[in-house]
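Backbone geometry tokens:
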Amino acid sequence: MKGQRAIVVALFWVLSLVAAAGAQTTATAPATTRAASGPADLLRQRIARLVNELESDDFDAREKATLALIEIGPEVLEILYQRLPDGTAELRQRATHIAAEISRKWQGIRLDAGKVVAGFQAFLLPPPKVYAAGDKIHLHVVLSNVGPTSRQIVDFRGFDLELPDHKLEFTSRRSDGRLIVRKAGRTATPREGKAIEYPAIPDQRINFAGGGSIATLIPLHAAVALPAGEYEVQFVWYSATKSLVADAMEDLKSNPVRVKVGQ
């Protein structure tokens, strides 16, 4: 069922943009590239080149580009979608096929989790209850390899805390990610907090087979004491900022969840 839902969603986006593009026959602007400064930029440039090749006069070049974009996965879709409004009929047809194939091969994707980055997706489980003030609040984040191939990550060593309502950040050199806490009701977020640090350990790399996942328990109460109120919490993993996974074009963000604290 998840795979079927993912296909429907992917095709909806592609076909809606195809409809908006209409039957244009004007010349198209190729996907732009810029000087690369790291692996993420190189991947963006590669995707842009492959998208341009979907409109090549050479059939074999178009076929190879199509297969390569499917292999890269969901991260190609944003760049591909940007080209659709001024793309040719050939590009729009191949975009539909690419989106469907990515959805078929990447069936581990959750529609209620964050955006896929470098083959990984982060899902922050909604808290199961309303907490009382002073309770220990543990959040479960599930990091999944939603692609068809094996991938490797660095295990968690700590988390920074960001309180954007007050433009405050509490950081640690050892952190591999951060928790973002915003107010969702009338109660303001506290102005005090700290980063979460786990005991010092060497970098541990974890190999994930396609579809593999790891669940981590994050003690939110260890970072910030939340008074009675309602808050929005989001998890961010520094996949790109600290190069924790190859080819990450940005940091991996989870879905936001609501945390309610009673009197």
